[in-house]
Design brief:
Elements (H helix, E strand, L loop, with lengths): L1 E10 L4 H11 L3 E9 L5 E10 L1 H13 L3 E7 L4 E12 L5 H10 L3 E5 L3 E8 L1 H11 L4 E6 L3 E4 L9
Antiparallel strand pairs: 1-3, 1-4, 2-3, 5-7, 5-8, 5-9, 6-7
């Protein structure tokens, strides 16, 4: 089993998310991450769905997604031909003695310190899931107090475009 990323353009209306996610759950796929947002056209949303499962079952799901009334276009994004990013906010316990080390780690990962209090630092990081997991690994010894991740967003590289036509 491997991780797959599916991109879908859907009608931006109530119930669409439920119908799309229902197809995955009925087939026994756990959705690792799901992000939805408006596109350049406010009546259309882009869904980026990261799932882990067997190739042949995913092919069936993509075919079934394409048959849903609300789905305009759907395609699996191959890792070699797409850009993948995620945003993470992480609040770390960092007093006066540990603060410089936490700031240094954030800098190594090209992250930004977005809030500082006497006892905490909040960091914003953007990048691949692997990069963010690596950052978390180094920050955990300082004490992760809170963590929020957006989930994966992805677009195909170059002139490849998932479009409504």
């Amino acid at each position: 089993m491997k991780q797959h990323v599916v991109s879908a353009l859907v009608e931006n209306r109530a119930g669409t998310l439920s119908r799309v996610s229902g197809l995955f759950s009925r087939r026994g796929f756990n959705i690792d991450s799901l992000t939805v947002g408006e596109t350049e056209d406010p009546s259309i949303s882009r869904m980026t769905i990261a799932v882990t499962g067997e190739d042949r079952v995913l092919e069936q799901i993509i075919k079934q997604l394409g048959k849903l009334v609300d789905v305009i276009a759907v395609r699996e994004l191959e890792p070699s031909s797409c850009l993948r990013r995620e945003i993470m906010l992480v609040k770390i316990g960092a007093g006066e003695k540990t603060r410089p080390a936490v700031i240094e780690i954030a800098g190594i990962f090209r992250s930004r310190v977005i809030d500082v209090s006497p006892e905490t630092i909040t960091i914003e990081a953007t990048g691949s899931m692997e990069k963010l997991n690596g950052l978390l690994l180094l920050l955990r010894p300082y004490g992760v107090l809170e963590l929020a991740r957006t989930g994966l967003v992805a677009l195909e590289r170059g002139s490849l475009v998932l479009s409504i036509s």
